[in-house]
Write a structure and sequence with these properties.
single chain, about 130 residues, mainly alpha, about 0% strand
Amino acid sequence: MNNSIAAETIALPKLSTLLWRGFRQKCPRCGETRLFASFLKTPESCGTCHHELGAIRADDFPPYLTMFIVGHIIVPMILIVEKSSPMSISMNLKIWLPLTAVLTFWFLPRIKGLIVGLMMHIGLRGDETQ
């Protein structure tokens, strides 16, 4: 049997499993292979289950969600610190900019993996037109 045909006949796991595997940056279908060939680039197909991953395009949604989440973490922290003990602008920049960058780079691939798992569950590829 052809690998691509075999990959399409395997049933998808439940939604929570797809999301968790994607968040862990693993193939949402099998959970074995790394989801990304580089920082955010998906390989053409999974090395284990041969499911086509390269065609699934999450586009701008993962960065929007990442900004939303990181913003909701950083802004309250800034407000709490400023209210309790105001700091100089240079000290704020030294603390909050690197923390924002670290959180963004940590969340972005995980959120993209989660979105790829969600798109796989819904059956979207990212190339649909209205």
